[in-house]
Specification:
138 residues, alpha+beta, 434 Repressor (Amino-terminal Domain), 2 domains, 3 strands, 38% helix, globular
């Protein structure tokens, strides 16, 4: 598997960049650049799809759609019970209102990072956000 691009972003310094294969000086990923990146730098390796021959798919449970919708409804229900608007919860949690709206309407699957931020903003645990009526979640 070849690496096509190496993207980097430093949240501490608000800077980033990208190295691409096929440039004049490139012969594989130049690991020497890693020592020059600021601490807490986020790296994203982008594989060359042609060299992979396939793109791995995410394995999800057969009832994923039901879980996804129920999770969004549960987050919305708890938010309303706490008297918070989407804007209020988004500001408290540090995620965008659009991300919260997409989660509540099951348009996107939330990562555990968003669930933790949302739960903490509402003073509950991530387990409290999980739907109660779906087997295996509680």
């Amino acid at each position: 598997m070849g690496v096509e691009r190496l993207r980097w972003r430093s949240p501490d310094f608000g800077i980033g960049g990208e190295w691409r294969s096929g440039t004049a000086a490139s012969r594989g990923v130049p690991l020497s650049i890693l020592s020059h990146l600021p601490k807490n730098t986020v790296l994203t390796l982008v594989a060359d799809k042609a060299r992979l021959g396939f793109m791995p798919t995410r394995v999800r449970p057969p009832d994923w759609d039901e879980i996804h919708v129920a999770l969004g409804r549960r987050v919305a229900k708890v938010r309303v019970e706490r008297g918070l608007s989407q804007e209020d919860l988004a500001n408290e949690s540090g995620i965008s209102r659009t991300s919260l709206q997409n989660l509540e309407h099951a348009k996107t699957a939330p990562g555990i990072d968003h669930l933790v931020l949302i739960a903490r903003a509402m003073g509950i645990t991530v387990v409290d956000l999980l739907p109660k009526d779906i087997k295996g979640l509680r």
